From TrEMBL:
Enzyme class: hydrolase
Protein source organism: Mortierella alpina
Cofactor(s) this protein requires: Zn(2+)
GO BP: proteolysis
Similarity comment text for this entry: Belongs to the peptidase M28 family.
Residue segments, region Disordered: 1-45
Free-text function comment from the UniProt entry: May be involved in vacuolar sorting and osmoregulation.
Broad class of where this protein is predominantly found: membrane
Lineage of origin: Eukaryota, Fungi, Fungi incertae sedis, Mucoromycota, Mortierellomycotina
Name this polypeptide is given: Peptide hydrolase
EC number(s) recorded for this UniProt protein: 3.4.-.-
CDD domains noted in UniProt: M28_Fxna_like
A GO term for molecular function: metal ion binding
Membrane topology: Multi-pass membrane protein
């Protein structure tokens, strides 16, 4: 209870006449007690404590509530400002120092790159590649003028994959590489054919192909901009390294094919220069701009290099651990390099994901500020790595030591090893019980007993459990009423969850304190009882919450050690700062600390951390719903973030001395926000359009042209506006497990098909060779090694009109032994497993570097005898060019969309697939 000062203070002295040193002026009130301790009528009031439990004034309650709201608004405003603000773009004249990057300069080349969509299977993709090559050659001339070396690598790599780097492959993948590879030789580096200097290099990775529909301004036009110089005004990174050289070599892998399977990075690992790579920096786009975030790092040393950039670093280990736990199924080139044991950094945009991979992934929907921030962070991190001895220090290169890294609202960044994180936790797990024991011992005269702390701790656990259950229940309810709430109006959803958390916690704490006094039958004087309710329960709450955070810290340590994850790093901070807060709460006069500092501002940094996580998740995850992320999962995550933001308020809630008044205000706000969350329209044309995935399959055999449209919500309202889709069949999308809704209808015939009919050409012209039979021993679990199986070998040959990307799919029941595309080697043994190889033998997909190439696929499969019927498979070629009305059904859909909807291509290649059945 209240600690005596100097052995002579009593409660009348401590809480009688005004003592401004103990309380914030905002919280002082004369309405809850007498102005003089000699007021006889006050002292004679002996009503039980339960009858006066909520006698605290509106003024005091308002003061406490106002302090809570203002404090969180201040913290939230700081975090939001730092997360949403962008640096001013630098002009060419301003970017003269070694670490300077000019967004204005880069923007000119972005306008060239993003003129039209350039997915891998398009002629504009070839245009962009040639643009890059010609510009690199001009840059080589500039390098020679200052006696520097820039090398343009030849790329003739052909790869065969049995493992997809984004997921397990269900078919073989053949890819002819078309990367643009550049090496800038460092001051102490070794050039091609050289005999002196270090060959070790850091690779900067960015892809230049766009998705099917997007123009690739952010994914990954900006990434390519950051990595490659362009025509007339060579872009910053390579030119910067020419005029401000670093110690070691830097290789730029501006790759193609990232969007369709991370092929460009996989192909680079077969290039001769790959053997020298000791680290990488991957520049990505997971949104339409905003700040660039370091969301994955292989080891502590590289994260340290990023932390030293001095350009408002933005980083969080949360993304790294979410990927590690397998909760995110997508991938970046980071996955390829780490599969080959090369450590690196993954830096990406993540804001405004609604425009990501859509028609508006263009230059108008990003900003020069985003280019500047990516350029600042990417260039500074690259220079830091290439100028250090990291690349030639085997101990650091091969270190797989996990690290904890995060910035605090862009103000500063912390990086420490996972072992340091565990050590901090272990120390706190020991210190906290000692602190609580010492506090109980020194404050025992005023009733701060172990049982009081235990009861307060149980009340906190009950509050946490009740709030978590209520939040998850409300998330499930909102998921039924307005499932896309957090897609377009995540701030309303988050504020509702915060308010609901407060309401639940206030009600539970009120009920607990009421029960405590009722059971004790407290009949003391009103003045003393009020102070016990106002201060003593607050003291108990301050000490009990230390024990509560200690419990969460124990859980975070156990889970972290088992999974080697540190995403709960903020719990460490809360545990430490809650001890400081509790100390000043029990001994305010001893330290002369104002109440506001003791109870709230000490928790400023951890509160900022957990609110930062909440804000980052809202920006990054809210608009992933249209990609198939379950809405309940995102709402549940937001609600738990809100709960962690509210739990530190519990001691402050006790300060009000009036749970009843606080609960009235909180319930009212919660109801208002709940109604708003239920009725608000989640989509908007400017910030959150509904992303609609579109695909068309034209069947040459049946002359049918089926269009499939998918989205999360309100698809029927969209389809009613499309005249061509009047006759449609709608239902749950089986591919997403029913998370998305799909509609299928007969769309307009593609232009290529109409032209071929007029000219008499075959879009896909194929030929199957005469089958050959032979017997061969096929080892397997269900066969004896000595038995020989009859195998049939045929060659399927075809040519495709205007396509470089084709696929062949066989029935899952087919007993295929081999699929091999002419000119491609066998896949690496290191990436073959029995399960993957078995699955991959029912189909293939391949990409050719040039148009008009001949395909020759060898197919070997088991048969009962030579007269067995041929296998029937589906041969299809994919088309992604739409911007010149090559796909009329797509154009029609685009013209009839409501303003709040936007077309996207979905996952994988093939906006249009033209296919036919072939017998092999």
């Amino acid at each position: 209870m209240a600690q005596k000062q100097g052995g002579s203070d009593n409660l009348d002295r401590r809480y009688g006449d005004d003592e401004p040193t103990e309380e914030s002026p905002l919280l002082q009130s004369t309405a809850i007690g007498p102005t003089s301790s000699s007021d006889a009528s006050w002292k004679d009031d002996r009503r039980p404590a339960t009858s006066i439990l909520n006698q605290g004034s509106w003024r005091r309650m308002t003061g406490v509530l106002l302090l809570m709201v203002v404090s969180y608004l201040v913290i939230g405003s700081i975090v939001s400002y730092k997360r949403l603000s962008l640096p001013a773009p630098k002009s060419v004249a301003d970017a003269v120092a070694p670490g300077d990057f000019s967004a204005e300069w880069a923007w000119q080349h972005l306008e060239q790159i993003a003129q039209r969509p350039h997915p891998i299977n398009s002629r504009d993709n070839l245009r962009v590649r040639e643009y890059l090559i010609q510009t690199v050659r001009k840059l080589q001339d500039e390098a020679r003028a200052v006696n520097r070396t820039v090398e343009l690598g030849e790329d003739h790599v052909k790869i065969t994959l049995t493992q997809g780097f984004m997921s397990n492959a269900t078919r073989l993948e053949f890819y002819e590489s078309s990367n643009v590879i550049v090496r800038v030789v460092g001051a102490e580096g070794r050039a091609e054919g050289g005999s002196s200097g270090y060959p070790e290099a850091v690779v900067v990775d960015a892809h230049y192909d766009s998705v099917l529909i997007g123009h690739g301004a952010t994914d990954d036009g900006i990434g390519a901009l950051v990595g490659i110089p362009y025509l007339l005004f060579p872009l910053q990174m390579i030119r910067n390294l020419i005029h401000h050289p670093v110690k070691h070599n830097v290789i730029f892998n501006i790759n193609n094919g990232e969007e369709v399977g991370l092929y460009g990075a996989a192909a680079f690992m077969k290039h001769p220069w790959a053997k020298d790579v000791k680290a990488f920096v991957n520049l990505e786009g997971a949104g339409a701009g905003g700040r660039a975030l370091l969301f994955r790092s292989s080891n502590k040393a590289l994260a340290k290099h990023y932390s030293s950039i001095g350009n408002s670093p933005h980083a969080n280990v949360f993304g790294n651990d979410i990927f590690k736990l397998g909760l995110i199924k997508s991938g970046t080139d980071f996955s390829v390099y780490t599969a080959y044991k090369i450590p690196g950094l993954d830096i990406a945009f993540y804001s405004r994901r609604a425009f990501y991979h859509t028609l508006q992934d263009d230059i108008e929907h990003t900003s020069k500020g985003s280019v500047q921030h990516m350029g600042n962070t990417g260039l500074a991190a690259l220079r830091s790595i290439a100028d250090s001895d990291y690349l030639i220090t085997p101990k650091e290169i091969f270190s797989s030591e996990s690290s904890i890294y995060y910035d605090v609202a862009g103000l500063f960044m912390l990086v420490y090893s996972f072992n340091t994180y565990l050590t901090l936790n272990y120390n706190l797990l020991i210190i906290v019980p000692v602190f609580i024991g010492w506090t109980i011992y020194t404050a025992r005269e005023h009733g701060l007993t172990p049982f009081a702390i235990l009861r307060g701790y149980l009340a906190l656990l009950l509050s946490f459990g009740a709030a978590a259950g209520t939040l998850l229940g409300s998330a499930a309810l909102l998921d039924k009423i307005n499932p896309m709430l957090v897609y377009g109006e995540h701030w309303i959803g988050f504020m509702f969850f915060v308010s609901l958390s407060c309401t639940t916690i206030i009600l539970v704490q009120w009920a607990w304190v009421w029960l405590e006094f009722w059971l004790k039958g407290d009949m003391g004087p009103l003045e003393i009882t009020l102070q016990r309710i106002r201060v003593d329960s607050e003291q108990v709450a301050n000490v009990s919450i230390v024990l509560f955070w200690w419990t969460l810290l124990l859980g975070a340590t156990i889970v972290g050690r088992a999974k080697e994850i540190g995403l709960f790093y903020f719990v460490t901070w809360f545990t430490a700062t809650s001890m400081i807060s509790a100390y000043f709460a029990v001994y305010p006069k001893r330290r002369g600390t104002p109440w506001t500092l003791a109870r709230l501002w000490i928790n400023f940094v951890p509160l900022m951390m957990v609110m930062d996580i909440a804000v980052t998740n809202m920006i990054a995850l809210g608009q992933t719903l249209v990609d198939g992320t379950p809405s309940f999962a995102v709402m549940a995550l937001f609600s738990l973030c809100a709960l962690n933001c509210v739990m530190p308020l519990i001691p402050t809630i006790h300060r009000s001395a009036n749970f009843k008044k606080m609960s009235k205000v909180s319930v009212f706000l919660t109801l208002v926000l709940f109604v708003s969350a239920c009725v608000v329209f989640p989509y908007s044309a400017k910030e959150a359009p509904n992303k609609v995935a579109w695909r068309q399959i034209y069947d040459l055999d049946h002359d049918s042209s089926l269009v499939t449209v998918k989205t999360m919500n309100r698809l029927d309202a969209i389809m009613k506006l499309v005249p061509e889709a009047e006759k449609r069949e709608c239902g749950p999308d089986p591919v997403s497990g029913g998370v998305l809704t799909q509609c299928v209808y007969e769309g307009a015939v593609p232009t290529l098909v109409l032209e071929s009919k007029k000219s008499g050409k075959e879009i896909i012209k194929h030929h199957v060779s005469k089958p050959e039979h032979h017997r061969q021993a096929i080892p397997g679990e269900e066969r004896e090694a000595k038995s020989k199986t009859l195998l049939r070998t045929v060659h399927l040959q075809w040519t495709a009109e205007d396509s470089r990307l084709c696929q062949f799919q066989l029935p899952a029941s087919a007993k295929v032994v081999l699929l091999k595309l002419d000119g491609f080697d066998e896949p690496d043994e290191g990436f073959k497993s029995a399960a993957v190889v078995a699955a991959s033998r029912v189909g293939m997909v391949g990409f050719k570097r040039e148009y008009g190439q001949k395909w020759d696929l060898e197919v070997v499969y088991e048969v009962e005898d030579k007269n067995a019927p041929a296998l029937e498979g589906t041969l299809g070629c994919l088309y992604d060019e739409w911007d010149r009305d090559q796909i009329p059904a797509f154009t029609d859909m685009k013209h009839h969309l409501p303003p709040w909807a936007l077309l996207g291509g979905g996952k994988g290649p093939g906006l249009l697939t033209i296919q036919k059945v072939v017998s092999v």
